[in-house]
Each structure stands twice: as C-alpha cells, then as structure tokens.
Design goal:
This protein has 226 residues and is mainly alpha-helical. It contains ten helices and no strands. The structure holds a DNA duplex (21 and 21 nucleotides). Its main location: nucleus.
Length: 226
DNA sequence: AATGAATGCAACCGCAGCAGA
DNA sequence: TTCTGCTGCGGTTGCATTCAT
C-alpha cells in the first residue's frame, strides 16, 4: 500500500472550511479518523493543531490584555513551562499563544538584561535584582511587572520596588481560583488546548453562541454549511 | 524608497502518557 | 500484562509582517 503524500505547511481557506465542517459533524476527537473522512491530505495531528490553535470558535483573538499578561507571569512562576496548564487558566488562549508570548518576553528580558549588565559594569550598585529565587522567572520582570501590576490592579497601588509590593498575591490567586470555580460550575471546556480535561460533547461542540461568533468572523463558510 | 533586523505567529517534530485490544 | 495506536504537550523552526535606519 502506498500512503498518500501528506500535505504540510500553511492551511488554505478551503482546508479550514473542510476541517470545520467535519469537526462540527464528528466532534473534536478521533483526529486520525477526521483527517481520513474529511479527505484532507493532512495528518490527524495537524488537523488537531489547526483546530486547537486557530479554528476553535472559543478562541480569543488579538493582543493579550494587561490582566492576562499579569496572569501569565504569575502562573508561569507557579507552573513553569506547563503551557497547557497556564492556558487552562486563561479562557480563549492557547498554550501555543502563551508559549509564544512568553518567548517574546524572555527575548525582551534577555536584551534588557544585556543592557543592564552593560550599565551595571559602569554603576554596579544598581543591580541587586538577583535576590529572587532562580526558579521563579517571573521575579525577573521587575520593571515590566510593576507596570503591568499598575494596570491590572486598576485602583490599587503598588510600590515601585519589586520586593515591596503592597498588593497581596493572595488576591491574584483568588482571581485564579475563582476562574477555576467558574469553569467547574459551568462545566465548560477550560481551554481549547486543554482538551484532555474538558468534557467532550459528541453531538456538537458548536454552541449557538459559538456559531454566531464563528460565522461573524468567517462569513465565507456559509456556502459550505448551508 | 530600499533593505536589513526584529518581532509575532503558525506549524512541525519528537516524546510521553493513556486507553483499548 | 504487554502491545499498539492515538492524543496532547513542550520545544523548535520558518515564514510573514513590522520597524528602524
């Protein structure tokens, strides 16, 4: 038997339409099966990724809000590189998105550190940020974090010094926990990427609101779905 | 206006864990 | 209990776009 050549690279609009149609029909599991019946020359894995990271109607689009950014920083300090775990706390965001966001941050940070190191070599007294623990990357975002905290905290006030933060971390964690509670109560998928944890609905994953959301943004699909 | 660098994002790869046979 | 196939995760890459010079 000669296996048909699998397509790779960017997805076309037509492929997207096809995948959405079949996911709607069969649900977002059994990706190998979906890949076969859909006629897409894609692996199940590729189909899943496309759905999870791009086509899933529950995904948010656009830039991260300051609140989300703050949450990512905090959650990363708690979970490390467990992106799916972090994504689970950020409804509508994927692990891939957060991972990319974090990488960008690390890159920025590295550059800033480079600059600071150069400065420090001139005035070494200014570089005492290493007091935080090595496995708490979030602690390194001192300047940026303070900016974020100011935004996220709205009316709350933070000290300029990273080690003297007035805002209680408990409040942040309460927020995190409250989102967990909401997820549990609503029994909704926490995140698109966190599929292992959410309840699969075999009839259709398409809530009416999702339909609306989806078709508002992808009007071209109407010809396919009728 | 051209072009090289930086950035953002989508997609692929390899591995581990899980479930069913 | 072991084997096998599928799914999901984290790391990495490569391309497109934006920015700076």
């Amino acid at each position: 038997m000669v296996e048909e050549e699998m397509r790779k690279g960017p997805w076309t609009e037509q492929e997207d339409v096809q995948l959405v149609f079949y996911v709607k029909m069969f649900g977002d599991r059994r990706w190998d099966f979906l890949a076969k019946v859909s006629g897409l020359k894609r692996s199940g894995k590729s189909c899943r990724l496309r759905w999870v990271n791009y086509l899933n109607p529950s995904l948010k689009r656009g830039k991260m809000t300051p609140q989300e950014e703050l949450l990512v920083l905090q959650l990363h300090s708690k979970y490390g590189n467990r992106w799916s775990k972090i994504a689970g706390k950020l409804p509508g965001r994927t692990d891939n998105e957060i991972k990319n966001y974090w990488r960008t941050h690390m890159r920025k940070q590295a550059q800033d550190e480079k600059k600071n190191t150069n400065k420090a070599s001139i005035s070494p007294s200014s570089s005492n940020c290493s007091s935080s623990s090595a496995n708490s990357p979030v602690e390194d975002f001192s300047t940026e974090r303070n900016e974020l905290l100011q935004v996220a905290g709205e009316n709350k006030i933070y000290e300029g010094d990273q080690n003297m933060m007035v805002y209680s971390m408990d409040e942040i964690w309460k927020e995190v926990e409250s989102t967990e509670e909401i997820e549990t109560k609503n029994d909704l998928p926490a995140m698109a990427s966190n599929t292992r944890d959410y309840n699969y609905c075999p009839d259709s994953i398409w809530m009416s609101t999702h339909d609306h959301y989806y078709f508002d943004n992808h009007q071209d699909f109407s010809f396919f779905t009728g």
